[in-house]
Write a structure and sequence with these properties.
single chain; 185 residues; mainly beta; ten-stranded antiparallel sheet; two-stranded antiparallel sheet; 1 helix
Length: 185
Amino acid sequence: MDHAGVEHEFTDEERMMITIDNNRLYRHQVLRVNYTTYDNRRVQDTINPLTRPDIMMLSGENEEAEHAHPYWYARVLGIYHVRVLHTGEFSKSSQLQTMQFLHVRWFGHHVKHRSGWKARHLHRVSFIDGDSEPFGFVDPAHVIRAAHLNPAFAFRKTEDLLGPSKIARRETDGDEDWRFYYVAM
């Protein structure tokens, strides 16, 4: 995904131009994100897949579009880096380079719920169901900051969004997800 939130499809030939050094993938426990607060102070969020996993990034959606929301939300499942060599006509270096990425489970904005300042309701999101594309990869440079998502307890939990998974959920959650979350502002 690029900085405007546009996803790219790569051909098999383009994938063959990438070599992962020694077929090694390195996993990290935390990601630190620097950001500026409303009163121009510099602070840092610590993203940890086990304790504080939710993030927000610019959506790249057209603001005039119906149901447009300025942010996308995701739950970080893993923080990784690999050393890669890119060959081919668009290669900019013949040296190994470090590529960092996050493995995420996407939240979708609940468009039927009236929300925002005018509606006087918090925005509501839910995990994207397993029939769509619930998982993806994000460049850590696109993360604005950690997101504080509160379960909407009144809507209870559901097993309908995703089948059993030891990667997408904590063991204590069983095979259930909260149906909705409120985005704390």
